[in-house]
Amino acid sequence: MEEARLIDWSGDRTHVLLNPRMQLEERERLERMARSARLRSHSVVAGPWSPRALIESDATLASLVPTQVHDLMASGLKPPKRLRAILVGGGAFRPDLDEQARAAGWPLLASFGMTECASTVTVRDVLLPHIEARTDEEWRLSFRGSSLFTGYISEEGFEDPKVDGWFVSDDIGEVEGRTVRVHGRHSDFIKIGGESVNLARLDRILESVRGGVDAVLIAAPDERLGHVIQLVATRDAKELVERFNERVLPFERIRRFHLIDSIPRSSLGKLLRAELTRRLARDEI
C-alpha cells in the first residue's frame, strides 16, 4: 500500500517536529519512542516553528498542522529534495490548501488520528494496516486494533470504554472497505434556532478567509437561539468578519467579536476551544 510505504520510518534518519510550544520533556519522550521502536539511527529534531527552520533541517519526515502548511505556502520556499513525506494533522485541513501545496512539490500526507489509537489512524483517508473501523446508526466512527489504548485513568479510577474491543469515538464519518472519510465531530454539530450547524465546516470557511489573522470560532450558548457563532481574534478583525459572513447562511453569521492577547492552544498547537469558551464565559479575557 502506497500510504503505508510512505510513512515507514525504517529508512529515515531525521523526523522533525517544529513547534514553539514544544518543551524539552516532549523532545526527550519522542527520542525514547524512537529508541523503543529500535530505530537506532532515527533522530528527532524539535524547535521553534518557521518555514525556513524546516528547510534548513536535515528532515526526511515532518509532522505539521494545517496552519504550518499555510505558512509554508505563504513563504514561497521550495521543498528540499531529501524531504520524503509530511504528515499533516491536528485540525481541519482545507482540500484546496492540500492541493495547492502538493502542486508546489510539498510531499503532504493528510492524516487523521486520535490519542486513543496512539495517534495516526488514516493517511489520505486510508486506514493503516493494524486498524479496523466501522460506523453505528448515528454515523459515529468506532475503531479496533493493536494500537488502541487500554482505558482512561482519572482521580475516580480506571475506566475501559471499549465494547468488545471497539472504541466508539466522537467523530462522524463513513467507512467503505479500508477507506474512512471523517466529516467532523459529533460535538461539532450544534443547533442555532433549530437549524443544524457543522462547526467543522465553519472552521474551514474561516481558514479560507482569515489570511494572517490569528482567529477562531466558538459556539456560545444563547437563551433564544440555543447557540450563536462568535469570533475570537488577537487583532482587529472587522474585515474578516465581513468576508466570513458573506460566505455562510444568515443564522451562521458571526454575532459577536472578542479581542484577546492570545488564543489557548495545546503543546501541539491544537485549539483548546472548550477552555476558550469557559474563559469567555467567566470574562477572564
3D architecture notes:
The structure is a single chain. This protein has 285 residues and is of the alpha/beta class. It has helices at 2-6, 24-36, 51-56, 66-75, 95-103, 199-209, 238-246, 273-281, and strands at residues 14-18, 43-47, 61-64, 85-88, 108-114, 119-123, 126-127, 131-135, 140-145, 152-154, 157-159, 167-176, 179-185, 189-192, 195-198, 215-222, 226-233, 254-259. The chain has three domains: 2-113, 3-Layer(aba) Sandwich (Rossmann fold), CATH 3.40.50.980; 118-185, Luciferase, domain 3; 193-281, GMP Synthetase, Chain A, domain 3 (2-Layer Sandwich). It has eight helices and 18 strands. The protein has a seven-stranded mixed beta sheet, with helices on both faces. A four-stranded antiparallel beta sheet has the order 8-9-12-13.
Overview features:
34% strand, Rossmann fold, Luciferase, domain 3, 25% helix, alpha/beta, GMP Synthetase, Chain A, domain 3, 18 strands, 285 residues
Computed structural class: alpha/beta
Percentage of helical residues?
Answer: 25-40%
**Structure annotation, total helices:** 8
| CATH-defined architecture of the largest domain | 3-Layer(aba) Sandwich
Overall strand count: 18
- Spans with pLDDT under 50 lasting ≥5 residues? 1-6
Largest sheet: 7 strands, mixed
How is this structure best summarized?
This protein is an alpha/beta fold and 285 residues long. The chain has helices spanning 2-6, 24-36, 51-56, 66-75, 95-103, 199-209, 238-246, 273-281; strands at residues 14-18, 43-47, 61-64, 85-88, 108-114, 119-123, 126-127, 131-135, 140-145, 152-154, 157-159, 167-176, 179-185, 189-192, 195-198, 215-222, 226-233, 254-259. It starts with a helix and ends with a helix.
